[in-house]
Amino acid sequence: MSRVLIIAEHDGEQLNGSTARAVSCAIDLGLDGIDIVVLAAQGDRVAEQAASIANVDKVLLVQNVLNEQAVSALLAPQIEALASEYSHLLAPSTTFGKDLAPRVAAHLGVPQISDIMRVESARVFDRPVYAGNAVITVEAPEGVVVGTVRTASYPVAPNGGSASIEKREVNVDLPSHTRFVSVSTGAGEERPDLQAAPIVVSGGRGVGSEEKFNVIYSLADKLGAAVGASRAAVDAGFIPNDHQVGQTGKIIAPELYMAFGISGAIQHLAGIKDAGTIVAINKDADAPIFEVADFGLVGDLFQIIPELEKALG
Amino acid sequence: MKILVGVKRVVDYNVRIQVKPDGSGVATDGVKMSMNPFDEIAIEEALRLKEAGVAEEVIAVTIGSKSSQEQLRTALAMGADRAIHVETDEDVQPLTGARVLQAICDKELPKIVLLGKQAIDDDNNQTAQMLAALSHWPQATFASKIDIEGEVATVIREVDAGLETLSVDLPAVISADLRLNEPRYVKLPDIMKAKRKPIDVMTIEQLGVEQAAAVKIIKTSAPAKRQAGIKVETVDELVAALKEKGLVK
After folding, report:
1. A239 and A256 in contact (C-beta within 8 Å)?
2. CA-to-CA distance for A79 and A62, rounded, in angstroms?
3. Closest chain B C-alpha to A237 CA, distance in angstroms
4. pTM higher than 0.90 for the full model?
């Protein structure tokens, strides 16, 4: 019996879209079944959302007050307790999954496959290395396969399923050595989620300051877009870290990516190469971003953005 | 308090990666090698904790070929007190690497293990988490700020949602993200001084570590390339092109 268990990412109320992308990857494994586990304090709503994803057979709901926040040191032992029923464990390759999956794999004594971007067979996968400048095809050894799914490589699996929801008691000792204190999210929460939005408007060092980033927000709002940024813009303090797009930030695949004042360092390009259409606006005609852009426009972003807004009506 | 810091020798950050035509890997002959940038940040943080009086000793560890000692010398020149070289010519994957670090922790009893969040060659982002798991220690990955008070570390982590704060009991494993600090430049006298600092050399077998089953690398290929598109001259031209594709209204 080969089944895959997908570890749901959620905030207690909403299932994160990365989970449904992991389902798309799981379908490619061609196994006997796809289950999702929701570890939460309550999590009923999250479990319902997970159960409605097409092709999911069963949702396991593990309720524990200690699961109020996703703390890997606490989640890992609970997942390990369920692992014996599965041939594969998958998590999205978000900061949630990257933090958690290796901890689970190490306890199970198996390696972990990071950033699965293509499934060749149930044990053979493609994954990026060197910031996406090479791709390796790897084969997992015997034992349970633990992997993270590069979410930009997979579409959100559609709804339309009606999986059963099964409450599970997991009786394992959970450590007290790790305590969640707080999480602070950056500005722009009313804007679409960077990892899910069909349009992303992004600014780089060329924007110049935190105040001047308002032009980026303004265009984004006009287009109903999420706001991204290069590492340089985040390092310079123009915008909080959760907007960073690139190898060490978020890897995204919007339908339209518009880069303003971003030169296009390799690490940034690694985060956008799956975008449908890339538009680059930069003063420097030789900026590397133009080598990957579908449409490039050389010029001053502070002149171009108002013109764009006007042209868009 | 001792801090153990992991150091990995990798292809330098600025090298343009070339996949070998036979699919056996990426070209490394004659290519500049450096310390993994995230490990440099980890070393820097350990040194700052020492300078702040929190730690007494900073030990740099690497697992790799003889030439990895170059990176240990860099760590020593930055200010690490001594170094451990676990010498092997084989490719060491994260689970085996974590087991090796665990064996060293058993001998050295550090309160903090600081690692880079990922190596820029294999981009695995696993070793810190695996070491924490094997040791049953807390983990605080992707750290952008670390405060130590007594036996507790308060760590701000860069997560997708923003900045998360965790409080962990020591000993703990912490992995460094980009904004934790800016590593210092090494000065020439420090390089000279570093030559006299001790490097303890040992093998994986001597540490009694059993190698984990490895992920087999079948082939290495070049990524699908995006083709450069066209340059447009005006905003109107751009908007017309986007409208034609149905991307904007």
Report:
1. no
2. 10
3. 11
4. yes
A116's tokens: 């699965």
Q: How far apart are CA B120 and CA A230, in angstroms?
A: 18
Q: Residues of A with CB below 8 A from B112's CB? A: none
Confidence at A162, pLDDT banded by 50, 70, 90:
very high
The answer to whether residue B27 neighbours chain A at the CB level (below 8 Å) is no
Q: Which of B19, B101, B129 to mutate to test the interface with A (most CBs of A within 10 A)?
A: B129
pLDDT at res. A185: 82
- Residue A132 Cα, gap to closest chain B Cα (Å): 7
User: Average of pLDDT values for A260-273?
Assistant: 93
Residues in chain B, pLDDT under 50: none
CA distance A159 to chain B (A): 24
Q: List the one residue out of A292, A28, A49, A309 whose CA is nearest residue A150.
A: A28
- Size of chain A, expressed as the number of residues it contains: 313
Question: Within the 181-220 window of chain B, which residues sit less than 8 Å (CB to CB) from chain A?
Answer: 212-220
ipTM of the complex: 0.95
Query: Any idea which residue has 């014996």 for tokens?
Result: A84
**CB interface of A with B, residues 28-47, below 8 Å:** none
C-alpha to C-alpha distances, A186 to A307, B87, B158, nearest whole angstrom = 28, 44, 11
CB neighbour list of residue A17: distance below 8 Å, 6 or more residues apart: A156, A193, A195, A196
Q: Is A1 on the interface with B (CB under 8 A)?
A: no
B 51-90 residues inside an 8 A Cβ radius of A: none
Cis peptide leading into residue B171 (ω within 30°): yes
